[in-house]
Automatic annotation (TrEMBL):
Its cofactor is pyridoxal 5'-phosphate. Gene3D superfamilies: Aspartate Aminotransferase, domain 1, Type I PLP-dependent aspartate aminotransferase-like (Major domain). It comes from Povalibacter uvarum. This is Putrescine aminotransferase. Keywords: Aminotransferase, Pyridoxal phosphate, Transferase. InterPro entries: Aminotrans_3, Aminotrans_3_PPA_site, PyrdxlP-dep_Trfase, PyrdxlP-dep_Trfase_major, PyrdxlP-dep_Trfase_small. The lineage of its organism: Bacteria, Pseudomonadati, Pseudomonadota, Gammaproteobacteria, Steroidobacterales. It holds the Pfam family Aminotran_3. It is an enzyme of class 2 (transferase).
Length: 457
């Protein structure tokens, strides 16, 4: 049945009768009624009332090449006609799995040339946990099992990925998490830096890793994991001193380093991977979202030589998913990578559109009374909302300025996301300068109305 065949009200009634939504407060949903998105093209989506809305989030940080790219659709169609499914267990492979490994090796940083496939970022991180522990077992250090991650880190929504992540409201759902996970502070200078300079704070935040390793004992720690730029935690780009110090500490204590590239990967920060932007040399690199631009679900874990060689010598790898390397998803991912290469999308982000996007947002942030700082990297941006700019006073949860601003932006046909009291943007990499102008002027309207609401504008 086509989207046009039902009214918005009918969709809403059917939805609330049968559909349980992720990351949604059911009461708030019932009050407002679900928004039904029926089609999309380029950087825009349309809802069931026919409104054209600029998608400032590229779906959930994933539709990097934009909507409506026929070659991704064709790649899926061809693959599904020829071979809709076969698995990669038990010494079998399909051509698109094999060729995706080759395409990925072209774009990942040197030395990360071996890939395990899964279907989501969460599954990729569960894979990382199992492989890192397997690695240390094979190396004769079976006690190296604990993962160190960061507060406000996001690594997915399976029980292991939630335990790995540092999201308080997600931890609260479980009450009890899995053992074997520890957390250190997130490197957010604006809220935690106090009187330190940015670069001093970067070192202090990184040294929290060393303290935690010494507390747990280096012989008990398997790995450190971090997003190059924390996404769902509020777009936190660390000071430039942070990652080099983390890298040094991991090497000193022989701890595996994992860069969670699920958001930063595939051009978002102006390089193929955030690790390249921030000078990280990870041992393991989970990726998802932009890998297929969200057209079909797929994820991968890249391993360096050290990890790959151990795993390769280590006997049966008793791990995998029915849809690991789903042929159609692999075909779409290959088409996505080839399209990004042909259109030079990563170079475009780095040299043209991200500098423009950031300059426009920086002007807005500098001038606006309720914006404390602009954060992020490339086409990943966070605007910190504040009640008092000079004193760096952030709106409280009760004020909830960010959700107010998000709703106001949506009324003006822009999708932004609110994380804590930060407004977040992650538009498709194909966004044009004219569309950036449209986006910034809509953000400004949302901010102005929010400021007025709180008597600050
Ligand atoms: C979205 C995300 C995940 C989880 O991916 P899913 O596909 O939703 O399981 C993991 N890590 C990071 C950094 C993410 O942003």
């Amino acid at each position: 049945m086509s989207a046009q065949s039902r009214s918005t009200l009918e969709w809403q009634q059917l939805d609330s009768a049968h559909h349980v939504h992720p990351f949604t407060d059911p009461k708030a949903l019932t009050k407002r009624g679900v928004r039904v998105i029926t089609r999309a093209d380029g950087a825009y989506v349309w809802d069931s009332d026919g409104n054209k809305i600029l998608d400032g989030m590229a779906g959930l940080w994933c539709v990097n090449v934009g909507y409506g790219r026929q070659e991704l659709v064709d790649a899926a169609t061809r693959q599904m006609q020829e071979l809709p499914y076969y698995n990669s267990f038990f010494q079998t492979a399909t051509p698109s799995q094999i060729e995706l490994g080759q395409a990925l090796a072209e774009v990942t940083p040197p030395g990360l040339d071996h890939f395990f496939f899964a279907n989501s970022g969460s599954e990729a991180n569960d894979t990382v946990i199992r492989i890192a522990r397997h690695y240390w077992h094979l190396k004769g250090k079976p006690n190296k099992r604990t993962f160190i991650a960061r507060t406000m880190g996001y690594h997915g929504s399976t029980l292991a990925a939630v335990s790995l992540g540092g999201m308080p409201h997600m931890h609260a759902l479980d009450k009890v998490l899995l053992p074997g996970f520890a957390h250190i502070m997130h490197p957010h200078w604006y809220t935690l830096g106090g009187t330190l300079s940015r670069s001093e704070f970067g070192i202090v935040a990184a040294r929290a890793l060393e303290d935690k390793i010494l507390e747990l004992g280096p012989d008990n720690v398997a790995a450190f994991i971090g997003e190059p730029v924390q996404g769902a935690g509020g777009v936190i780009d660390p000071p430039e001193t942070y990652w080099p110090e983390i890298q040094r500490i991991c090497r000193k204590y022989d701890i595996l380093l994992v860069a969670d590239e699920v958001i930063c990967g595939f051009g978002r920060t102006g390089q193929w991977f955030g690790s390249q932007t921030f000078g990280i040399e990870p041992d393991l690199m989970p990726m998802a979202k932009g890998l297929s631009s969200g057209y079909l679900p797929i994820s991968a874990v890249a391993m360096n030589k050290r990890v790959f060689e151990a795993v390769n010598e280590g006997g049966l790898l008793a791990h995998g998913y029915t849809y690991s390397g789903h042929p159609a998803a692999c075909a779409v991912a290959i088409a996505n990578i080839r399209l990004m290469q042909r259109e030079k999308l990563v170079e475009r982000v780095r040299e043209d559109i991200a500098p423009y996007f950031r300059a426009r947002l920086q002007e807005l942030a500098d001038d606006h009374p309720i914006v404390g700082e602009l954060r992020g990297s490339g086409l990943l941006a966070g605007l910190q909302l504040v009640k008092d700019k000079a004193k760096r006073t952030i709106f409280t949860t009760e004020d909830d300025a960010a959700n107010k601003c998000r709703d106001l932006c949506l009324d003006h046909h822009l999708i932004m996301r609110a994380v804590g009291q930060t407004m977040v943007l992650s538009p498709p990499l194909i966004i044009t300068r004219a569309q950036v102008d449209e986006l910034v002027s809509k953000v400004k309207i949302g901010l102005d109305l929010t400021a007025r609401h709180f008597g600050l504008g």
